[in-house]
Amino acid sequence: KIYKRHLLITGGAGFIGSHVIRLFVNKYPDYQIVNLDKLTYAGNLANLKDIEDKPNYQFVKADICDFERMLSLFKEYQIDGVIHLAAESHVDRSIKDPFTFAQTNVMGTLTLLQAAKIVWGEDFEDKLFYHVSTDEVYGALEFDDTLFTETTPYAPHSPYSASKASSDHFVRAYHDTYGMPTVISNCSNNYGPYQFPEKLIPLFIHNIRHKKPLPVYGKGENVRDWLYVVDHARAIDLVFHQGRIAETYNIGGFNEWKNIDLIKVIIKTVDEQLGHAAGTSDGLITYVTDRAGHDLRYAIDSTKIKDELGWEPSLQFEEGIAKTVKWYLENQAWMDNITSGAYEQYYEDMYGNR
Ligand code: NAD
């Protein structure tokens, strides 16, 4: 079959990547979609069961840091567009192991950029390198600060956000130095199905179901903006096809929640869906020592993508949370598979044996 486009989507076995792959494979049968993933602890091909047999989908297990392999993959699949999501993504892990974050997020991104540049031979017509990034590169806000915009200066604090900031700069450098067509989006916290249960929402749903303590950092005062992952995937589709070259687009839900209030919504929703009386799981909340350097607040202004590309979140937060809780409760096997083995050790290292 002759395909109209050949896209390399990295990190497609992870949380957001799997939603992006699903959307592109189903929506664009005339594109060949190559999912490149190393399958670290966070990569899980079970996230893609429903699309793995589609003719326009191809999985390749590889490391984005492997330059020779990237060169040959770009050639073999005649890649003309990249959507780069592969990364180490968990702030707590970056505090314990910053080297892995520099390696994958900085060197891996640079390796992909250089492979694209060499294979594309600086003939960049109809090519695009799209880098998916985070709002954490902008640093932290006080409660009364205005929201992050695309022109907010970078001020990352954690090894994770420092590595993502660095990779964003390399992407811009490839545009400014070599003329590579690039685009970047910076998104707020995502939630939804297939998220690894080290992140707050799936972790808490899982713990409530098992009547385990809910470890809340500090006093639970930190504020995050939350977006349903499928809305992020829709935004990525729009930016990929209609975003202006060399631009940055902020993607967020205009949906700020203080952690402790969010946790109360999760508890209420899980209790309701499990048929428990109101308040059953309230006592599981357990305050633990705050994360080192915990950023107080992130909040993103996504007016630009709304005005330019017509994107808006499609789901109200309560609706998104109800859908998400339902999905985790109905997909026990997916969760049990992940939370056995290495996860148990990780959990004990993080929160002790409770
Ligand atoms: P994730 O941890 O769920 O998935 C990351 C994927 O990348 C995994 O499948 C993993 O196997 C793969 N990977 C890791 N190292 C690799 C390597 N060296 N080579 C090839 N593949 C490798 O992450 P996520 O939450 O889906 O995030 C995806 C991207 O979106 C990341 O770049 C992240 O920085 C960004 N982002 C995430 C959020 C969020 O709330 N989760 C918000 C904004 C931006």
UniProtKB/TrEMBL annotation:
Coiled-coil residue spans: none
Record protein name field: dTDP-glucose 4,6-dehydratase
Domain NAD(P)-binding per the UniProt entry, residue ranges: 8-324
Alphabetical list of InterPro entries matching this protein: dTDP_Gluc_deHydtase, NAD(P)-bd_dom, NAD(P)-bd_dom_sf
Any single Pfam family the record assigns to this protein: GDP_Man_Dehyd
Swiss-Prot/TrEMBL catalytic activity: dTDP-alpha-D-glucose = dTDP-4-dehydro-6-deoxy-alpha-D-glucose + H2O
Cited SUPFAM superfamilies: NAD(P)-binding Rossmann-fold domains
PANTHER family recorded: DTDP-D-GLUCOSE 4,6-DEHYDRATASE-RELATED (PTHR43000)
Membership in a protein family: Belongs to the NAD(P)-dependent epimerase/dehydratase family. dTDP-glucose dehydratase subfamily.
Cofactor: NAD(+)
GO function term, MF aspect, one: dTDP-glucose 4,6-dehydratase activity
GO biological process, one term: nucleotide-sugar metabolic process
UniProt superkingdom: Bacteria
Keywords recorded for this protein, A-Z: Lyase, NAD
Keyword 4Fe-4S recorded: no
Record-listed E.C. numbers: 4.2.1.46
Originating organism: Bacteroides coprosuis DSM 18011
